[in-house]
Structure formats: C-alpha cells, structure tokens
Amino acid sequence: EVQLVESGGGLVQPGGSLRLSCAASGFTFSTYWMHWVRQAPGKGLVWVSRIKTDGSSTDHADSVKGRFTISRDNAKNTLYLQMNSLRAEDTAIYYCARGGQVGGLDYWGQGTLVTVSS
Amino acid sequence: QSALTQPASVSGSPGQSITISCTGTSSDVGSYNLVSWYQQHPGKAPKLMIYEGSKRPSGVSNRFSGSKSGNTASLTISGLQAEDEADYYCCSYAGSSTFVFGTGTKVTVL
Fold first, then answer.
1. Cβ distance B79 to B17 under 8 Å?
2. Across the interface, which of B57, B97, B103 has its CB nearest the CB of A106?
3. Cβ contact (<8 Å) for B34 and A44?
4. Cα–Cα distance between B47 and A108 in angstroms, integer?
5. Taking burial as the number of CB atoms within 10 A of a residue's CB, which of A24, A86, B38, B48 is the most buried?
6. What is each CA distance from A34 to A51, A94, A107, B79, in whole angstroms?
7. pLDDT attached to residue A79
8. Is A103 on the interface with B (CB under 8 A)?
9. Cβ-contact B98, A59 below 8 angstroms
10. Which portions of chain B are predicted below pLDDT 70?
11. Do B51 and A100 touch (CB under 8 A)?
12. Which residue of A62, A103, A110 is in closest CB contact with B36?
C-alpha cells in the first residue's frame, strides 16, 4: 500500500525556517517524481515544488523561489522541503504528492500544518 | 502564474449530471494535454480523479469524465450521488516546469 506521511510542521515566527519531511513507503520511491502542494486555511490548492527521480532537477513556484528548496534522499525514501525566510502568507497545510507515471498527482499524504506567526 | 478559473459552486440533484469548467490561457490549459482533476472532501487529502485531460485512474468511477476545448477543461459528473459532494480542483502544466491549480469548485448535492 502506497503511503506518504508528512512531518515537521508547526508554529514558526516570520523570517524563521522549517524543514518538512515526507516518508514514503509501499512503492519504489526512487522511480517517481515528487511534489509539494500547499493549501492555506479555507483556501485552494497551490503547487509549490517538484523534484526529479534522482534529485538532479528541481522546480519551484515563483512565490517560493529563492526561499524554499525541495530535496530527496532515495536511500531513506524521504522527501524534504526546506523553508527559509518564512512569511505569514506561507501559513498552510503542506502536502507531499507522488507524480504519477502516466500523469497527475496520484497519491497524497495527509498533510502537515505550518503556521507562520509572531 | 494566475490560478485557473473555476465556478465557486455547482449543485445538482441526485442522478443528475453536472459539469465544472476550468478556464486557463493559451500558455497552460490551451497548450498542453496535461489537465488533471482532484476531489477533496473536508479535512481530507485530495484524490486524483482525472489525468491527461480525460483519463481515469484505476478505481475511479466511470461517472467521472474529463474533456477540453481550447483554453477550457471540463469535468462532468453523471449520475450525481451524495458522496460526490466535495471540493473539486483542476490543475494544468503551465510551461517553464511549473503547474497551476484552479480556484476550486464546491459541489453540492441537493
């Protein structure tokens, strides 16, 4: 059974940093692109970042470019999102999702809540 | 990158068909056959319902179908059921290795 379990969320002050993790199991992690998607409270989904199977290529939304870094450790079957210079508008549930082999994001974690507030 | 435009809400009675539109531009929806649709129940993670515009993942009911015309993609739910009440989001590849989601549509079963 495919499982994605996020962790690392919490309360952080503006300007602070946080690293999210997503532990993957039930599939060959190293053969799938992985994504982060966020959802502010009561709002819609927003794509954040993606990373290639071997970590050699990464992409980020303009809103987080230069502040967030996606990475992965295929030996540990874990996806990461390093978030720096956090702002109030980064407050959201952060989901990790698997990029389907044939398109779409076919499996999602339950999400981890990040709150940026003083 | 601006969010794709979806109607805020759509409603229908059980057994009816409803269609949710997703309007983008010639830089995203219009340029690629890479639109996907997601269903999200309150407090739950999104679920993939349609990918590549019209393909259904294994396990998704054939009551859900997708299509595209120009810069607008559509999701049709036929034979509406109470369990279909949820939020629905479209998503498109937007070029330059980025993706964009729609504004979301709340489906209500009357």
1. yes
2. B57
3. no
4. 7
5. B38
6. 5, 13, 10, 34
7. 98
8. yes
9. yes
10. none
11. yes
12. A103
Closest-approach residue (CA) in chain B for A93: B45
What pLDDT is stored for residue B60 in this prediction?
97
* pLDDT at position A89: 97
* Contact call for A103 and B51, based on CB within 8 A: yes
Chain B residues in contact with A106 (beta carbon < 8 A): 48, 51, 57
Q: What share of chain B is helix, strand, coil (3-state, %, to 5)?
A: 5, 50, 50
- DSSP for A88-100, please give it: GGG-EEEEEEEEP
**Strand boundaries in B6-98, DSSP class E:** 9-12, 18-23, 35-40, 47-50, 64-69, 72-77, 86-93
pLDDT for residue A101 is more than 80: no
Q: Which residues 45-74 of A are in CB contact (within 8 Å) with B? A: 45-47, 50, 59, 61-62
Candidates A35, A44, A110; nearest CB to B89: A44
Q: What is the pLDDT of residue B97?
A: 87
Two tokens, residue A113 = 């809540």
A51 SS3 class: strand
The proportion of chain A whose per-residue pLDDT surpasses 70, expressed as a percent, equals 99
pLDDT digits (tens, 9 = 90+) for A26-35: 999 999 999 9
Indicate the residue type of A118: S
Q: Which of B53, B6, B57, B58 is nearest to B34 (CA)?
A: B53
